[in-house]
Amino acid sequence: MAVALATAIFFELENLMQIYLVGGAVRDRLLNIPIKDRDWMVVGATPDELISQGFEQVGADFPVFLHPQTHEEYALARTERKSGKGYQGFDCRFSPDVTLEDDLQRRDLTINAMAQDDDGTIIDPYGGQQDLTQRLLRHVSPAFSEDPLRVLRVARFAARFAPLGFTVAEDTMRLMQRMVSDGELDHLVAERVWQETQRAIGEAQPEVYFEVLRTCGALKVWFPELDVLFGVPQPEAHHPEIDTGVHALMSLTAASKMSTDIAVRWAALIHDLGKGLTPPEEWPRHIAHERRGIKPIKALNKRVKAPNDASTLALLSSEWHTHVHRAFELRGETLLKLFDGLDAWRKPERFEQFLIVCSADARGRTGLEDTSYPQAEYCREAFKEALSINAQDMIKQGLQGAEIRAGLTKARGQHLQQWKENQLPR
What we know:
By secondary structure, the chain is an alpha+beta fold. The protein has 21 helices and 11 strands.
């Protein structure tokens, strides 16, 4: 057994300590899905004893050790006591008398609070196997409420395991709602919020993350610009789903089917934040929502500290996506403005990301999830045509200095207009 091999290094102390495989590795083995990482718990040992066996200690908050051969993480069994606000406000106690059950009790979900010994026996004091069978995400103990980050973690696990039919247990959802109403999530730091959000966006059903956060009230705390979209109507003729918040999540779903790129998925989710600022008397129309969305997108990106690539793509997608939707109607010079606005000349990869976002927007509508979107390919071809005329062509015509840029813009605009007129009727 893998555990037996891993414990061989402890031959001098084998009667004094016990080693268990814990957490996600046990859960995933029982779910018959690939195990990504293995975490180990050591019961009945001290830091000095592990160091004497060649382990390297890492981590400042509590002792975690790297195995000298496998480099997998081994942690001493510990308990935690709430001592302050936020996810860092804990005092950790670790000593040889901390039991396996003590350690498992401090964990977030029952499905993550199981262990396996070196004989392959599952130790499950809190009903994790039953919750796996019932496909429930349930908290281990009331201590769950001491760590606000767990609200985001549960939402992320919901997104990860949604394809397997998992949902959040009702009692756990009520506890999360109480944590939100008590203001616990106000003490989270942006970096941790984005870390959990980014991981959730990368899951197979990332929209579930935001659905869970909305249900427990956390979306309003950290993503208010997104939360306010729910209940805002759109024209039914173009958006059968009507609700703008639903459309945002559907756009994220569509993007996740087309790309694993976090920036693309994030931009698809928040590209329509401007609709949340439309005065109700103008509903269901959202005139100028493209430019109106710049301010709330900047505010959200700043709050969660989204990385520059995701932040910039979201801003560009808000400002320019309707140009692509109307691509067949655009004059050559307007197509050129689109390429200039996106800086497609220097950032062709981002231009391609942007077109995927536009496609996701078009498919993020009820009944239109599999609709074709020829505008994207049309814009790709138009961009290729624009690139066929370059600065060297202008120099050959005798242009110099600033004349080159002006001449290039004019020539490309004229070429695109002629190209457009030569296209087959659509």
